[in-house]
Every structure is written in C-alpha cells, then in structure tokens.
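A student in our group prepared the protein record below, which I am reviewing. I have pasted the whole thing underneath without changing anything:
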Amino acid sequence: MRPRTAPPAAVLLLTGLALAACGTRADAGAPAAEVSPAPARVGACTAGTTAVRFVAAAVHATARRPAVARVEVTNTSGAPCTLAGATRLTARDDQGKAAPVETDNSAAAGTRAVDLRPRATAVADVGYTDLNFEGTASAREVCPVQASRVEITLPGDVARTVEVTGADGAPAVFSVCGGRVSFGAFGASRA
C-alpha cells in the first residue's frame, strides 16, 4: 500500500495556519516588531547639573512698565533634567542697609515642569522697578537694594550665589526700588 500524501495546496494551507497560530506572519519580508526600552527617568536640575546666570535689565523701568531682568538656567550635564517647583530669588543690598528682596516663581505657573536637554537653557523674566519716581532727578537711580550678587535656589536644591551681569556679560547691579518684584515661569531660551 502506498502512503498517502497531502496535496501541495493543503500543505501550504496548514503551514500558514500554524504560523498564524504562533503569531508569526508568513510574509518573511515584513519588519519584525521592535521593543523600545522604558524611557529613562529624568532627574531634577540641581546646582551640580546646571549653570545659572542673572542678567540685569538693559532698559530702566518707567512709571507704566517694569524693568525686566532674566534668570537663565543651562543644563551643563550630559543627561536631561527637569525644573519642577518654585525657584527662589534673594537679593541682598551690598552695603547691608536694606532688607533683602525675596520672591519665587510659584505664581504665574512657575511651578510647572520644564525639561532641559543637555546644553539647553530655560529663561524666566524678573520684573522690578529700578528707578525712584519720587524726589529729585539726581536721586532717581538710588534704590534701597543695590545687589551685585543674587541667590538663586532651584526647586528642592540649595541656594547658590551668582554674579549679576549685563547682557554683554559685564558686571552689573540689580537695583530694586520698592519691594515689588515679579518672577515669571521658565520657558525656552529666546536667545
């Protein structure tokens, strides 16, 4: 007796069904699924992973418009980091003749998370009055707080002292007349 063999079409059908049952496509030219690793956890931006600059306003305040300085935080590490939470700014008068000016950016969505890639910079505006609008013209630029350095404290980190500079990087002074200083939320660098 001769053994019975299946016709070629039946063999192909059974092979296709077996491959389909295994979750494999019979089409050998189709790309295989790729498994992506879980995203790496992004750490907080700290004094050890960032450089911070405080750039004094290039234009004086007016009676209707504040002077605008800026805080720049640059990721100096080789990995991304996140600013999440309030950043604190403290300015002390160089002569110690006035109470310090202290503010943070918890208002105006300042605590929302901002991710910084390596070498990326986040910028926040600091609005203030740097002129005395009362009294004589010769006293207009005399403010109670004249700070050549400020303290910046990133969320959950320690305070660090940074020199106040102008836009050109030259030493400058953060002059604050009146106690109202607004610290905005961080965003991408506009440079």
Remarks:
- DSSP finds one helix and 14 strands in the chain.
- The first strand starts at residue 43 and ends at 44.
- The mean pLDDT is 81.
